[in-house]
Write a structure and sequence with these properties.
Helices cover 42% and strands 19% of the residues. By secondary structure, it is of the alpha+beta class. The protein has two domains: 145 residues, no CATH class; 43 residues. It binds 2-acetamido-2-deoxy-beta-D-glucopyranose (2 copies).
Length: 248
């Protein structure tokens, strides 16, 4: 039963494959922000700009699958001077009526109806732009994700939002921590002061405030003859005790 359920879509997919090629339609990285590079009419660059790209993401698997009459096209933009695995932007779509003219591609070929596997690469405005035409059709969402797994892309605008939130939260937590530490040290100081006022015996922990208070104990002690008085009492007691013992 299960393999029959799997077989039906396979047959249907095969039928679609036979009549028309399916291509991935998506962008990744900063491709949609490179419009002035890819539609630079001053150098004779003219290509279509598709509304649907906005809601896609090749890397995250948000990919439309669209039927195409001619080759699938993948454009990769790499900024010069970036690290090895950095990609600035990627676009995948039908090549049908996509590129009308480009200084990056050979002049004598009609790329609006191109039916070959071919790769062209060109350097323009510090970007290496690669045009990959393929008759192979859509590779699959997982394969595309896999192909870009080790690549680094610039932050998308949507992800800027998330990273900003993370930074703001980090700063918030840091400020809270600082305030807490400040108050905690204040509270500790106040506790020490209170302890010192309360009893002289706590001078071990809070030595700073104890030094000021050292004269105070001596005021009490300087009462005349008071140092000797206790010892006299003790001696008296001992004598009395001894006397008692002797009496027994
Ligand atoms: C961009 O190209 C110019 C020359 O066209 C060069 O001087 C500059 O260093 C390049 N910038 C980068 C980042 O490669
Ligand atoms: C062109 O695209 C095809 C299909 O995605 C891929 O197999 C091939 O490696 C690519 N060629 C280059 C040079 O990137």
């Amino acid at each position: 039963m299960i393999w029959v359920k799997l077989l039906i879509p396979l047959i249907l997919f095969g039928a679609i494959q036979a009549s028309t090629r399916m291509c991935a339609q998506c962008v990744a990285g900063d491709f949609i922000f490179r419009r002035n590079l890819m539609q630079d009419s001053s150098v004779g660059m003219s290509m279509g700009w598709i509304e649907e790209w906005k809601n896609t993401n090749c890397v995250k698997g948000i990919i439309n699958t669209i039927p195409c009459d001619h080759a699938c096209l993948k454009i990769t933009i790499i900024k010069s001077g970036e690290e090895k695995d950095a990609i600035d932007g990627v676009m995948m779509d039908c090549s049908d009526f996509m590129i009308h003219s480009s200084p990056d591609l050979p002049k004598h070929i009609d790329f609006t109806a191109y039916d070959e596997n071919a790769v062209f690469s060109s350097m323009r405005r510090n970007f290496t732009i690669t045009y990959n035409f393929t008759m192979q059709g859509f590779e699959g969402v997982d394969e595309i994700a896999e192909a870009y797994k080790a690549k680094t892309f610039p932050y998308y605008r949507e992800e800027y939002g998330i990273s900003t939130i993370v930074i703001v939260m980090f700063l918030f937590v840091t400020v809270i921590a600082c305030v807490f530490i400040f108050f905690w040290s204040c509270v500790r100081d106040i506790c020490c002061k209170v302890k010192n006022d309360y009893s002289y015996s706590s001078h071990v922990q809070c030595s700073a405030s104890v030094e000021e208070q050292i004269p105070q104990p001596s005021d009490h002690v300087t009462a005349p003859s008071s140092p000797s008085a206790p010892s006299d009492d003790v001696e008296n007691h001992v004598e009395q005790k001894n006397g008692d013992i002797q009496n027994f």
